[in-house]
Records
---
Amino acid sequence: MDKQQQSKALQQQLQYWRRDFHQYPEIGFMEIRTASLVARYLEALGYTVYAGEEVMNREARMGVPDQAALDAHAAWARENGADEKWLERLTDGLTGVVGVLDTGRPGPTVAFRVDMDALEIQEELSPGHLPFDEGFASVNEKTMHACGHDGHTAIGMGLAKLLMENKDSLNGVMKLIFQPAEEGTRGAKSMTEAGVVDDVDFFIATHIGTGVPVRHVVAGNAGFLATTKMDVVFKGKAAHAGAAPNEGHNALVAASTAVLGLYGIPRHANGASRINVGVLEAGSGRNIIAPQAYLQIETRGETSEVNDYVRGQALSILTGAAAMHQTEVDIEIVGEAVSSTPSEALVDIISEVAKTIPYIDQVIPISDQSAGSEDATYFMERVKERGGLATYVIVGTNLAAGHHHERFDYEEDVLLTGVDLLFRTAKELAKSK
Ligand SMILES: [Zn+2]
């Protein structure tokens, strides 16, 4: 096969993987089928594969689904094509996979992170939506790859293939990190705490789309906000609203008091902040003093310092509001991410590499356009703390609808562009040290 045939074959392979993962989407900490197929493929290529608890710290996970949901999904995965051998190691919310290629020659350790999880969204099942038209729409109700992580997983596998095929021209160690539960910023901390990037000299996380147009690449995204996600339950005491209102402890009023307080948190002088109460459910009936209230809250900050401040204020308001109304409050942190900025030296290297790729027209070295939050920042910060360089690359593509939308879709050419850019970067980095 000549070069052109090779890249055509790789593009077809990437499309096949992407469509398969799209059709069988799995939400965070339940990517059992996906992760098992990744692990099997990496092993078949000749990678040393680590999975499950080897690459995840159980205690550092956040927002893990309950055991019944995990078990039910493991059964689903078994019936829907998961690899039997790997499945056992990927149950119980431990779905991370790391593949290591040691060239045996001195050189840097280069790590690439992709994520694997889908979202709890019902995919649009009507003509005009490509996954529906082409027959690879989600088979799982209210679960959809609506952020492109199906493509990220495919890019990780394609990169794994090219690195292995070209290992004789590489140096050092290549590490491919397949992260669970990026949505809700829940999974990366657990892999960081397990030491997955402690030996890494160069770290690159990748995302497609996010508003970056086709044939454009961002070599270093600097716009991520630090964030904390909380599930909050106020527990009061029910009583008859007519006969004995004085005997109740009103959780609905406590929660409402908290909501107004949360939106009154003063701004921080050192940067932008956000607060949102996305869900408030309370009460059990018209004539009952509400015994329970449930809230989903998130804070964000331009820097970790600002987010820590908003988070601290929020915790005081929640406990204060509970005390005011003689209720109890349970606060569970179900997701968190720090802020991070890309290492300029690494951004420069990737920018130069991107400029040599004929189908990339424009390279944006550093973009601080806010792209929400990302927990890849935990990896980035750890690598930088230990003297390495880290960045977050965005490969542009045109979108049919925005991220997290039921008609989300992207142009599949971006998969090959992503693999090519990362592979060329790996070759360049392998020359250093
Ligand atoms: Zn995403």
---
Amino acid sequence: MAEKKCSGINRQGASEYETVKIAKTDNVCPMCEDYAKKQASKPIAVICCEGACLRGEVARQAANLICNWLAPEKTVRICLGGAFTKDTGQRSLVKNAGKVIAIEGCFIQCASRMMKGVVDNLNPEIIIADRLYDFDTNLFGVDEMSEDQIKIHAKEAARKIGEKLYE
Ligand code: SF4
């Protein structure tokens, strides 16, 4: 069987856009808004694609490790859905951060493309997480790799990203 490789033309600079209609909501989560206020002084906002495949899962776990354990004093973990779909505290954290890091599960780069659509002139540092650990690139789903192995890859990705934060 031919090896399946994730690759593609990089169209991040393309002039084509998809226009989306996001339903506005009056719902506000007070706990989330409190979190945003408390975290506002952190210099680095970390967005992550949160994808459901194993690449997204590794990225998600790596982002959690960085923001909660490896560099909690420097980084704030962003709730991507909240920041993308409404202009409240989470989006403010992204807008106002000194630096934004986008941990992407793969080359599709969903997190940074989403947030660039709602935050003008956003220029995040993009990290493609699946280039930071060795694995069988034919694998796709979270059910195709053990939970322990996913955690090992997430730790490796987090360690490498964390090292860059302290360079
Ligand atoms: S960047 Fe890749 S892994 Fe993450 S949500 Fe997009 S397609 Fe899925």
